[in-house]
Design goal:
Blueprint (H helix, E strand, L loop, with lengths): L6 H5 L2 H21 L1 H5 L15 H4 L5 E4 L7 E6 L4 H17 L5 E6 L8 H12 L4 H10 L1 H4 L1 E2 L2 E2 L3 H14 L4 H8 L2 H16 L7 E4 L2 E2 L7 H17 L1
Parallel strand pairs: 2-3
Antiparallel strand pairs: 1-3, 2-6, 4-5, 6-7
Length: 246
Amino acid sequence: MSKNKNPLTQKSSGATTNIILTVIVVIVAIAVIGGVLLFNRGGGSGGDSGGQTVAADVLRKPDSNLLSEAPDGKVTVVEFLDYQCPACHQYYDNLTKKVEQDYQGKITFVARNYPLDMHKLAQPAARAAEAAALQGKFKEMYHALYDNYSSWAGSGEQLSSDVNKANAEFDKYARQIGLDMDKFHQDLNSPQVQKKIDADVADGEKAGVSGTPTIFINGKQFQPDVQTFGELEQEFRKQIDQELAK
């Protein structure tokens, strides 16, 4: 999803605006259903990420949250994500959750925050994840947020902006994963948690991130030119396996 609003909708008015909006809605719906929007959002022209390698200390900090860690540190995957982003959720369902499981102990998988302003519950969700991280339960909250996405985030183009409902869901997940609820509530809106999220966003901008999900494999952005989730997964695993084989 792009961080910037479509300028076409800002410059048009009246009937022209309605026509443009209608066309955009139809195009987006078709793209999401077919998966095309997800795979070409980065503008990549091929399976190889290409471009310059982003410095490791920009992509990962000592306090970055890990979904898996490899003792040899040979391959590091970094994802900048927005918990309410529909594309991030579809990547999770069709790619990253499988990769995390299948490459556990073989790759280091880093999850970093990049909440977009257009997603009103992205910041609260990121704070919930970071508050859980302070109790050593980041991975559990990360999975709870994505596994229960439709319960708090909405679905399709109908994304929720109900912060109270979302926070009630986050409380439920916190209890399920065994968090100290008093500490969880204290940390949710703490300067420490917000500072961590802001630092992730700043590093994402340094790395050239402009939308979510944006993924790096050993410092190079993953920009597949594919049309289906099956092709996406195949290309992703291919690149990881190539790095592991070096």
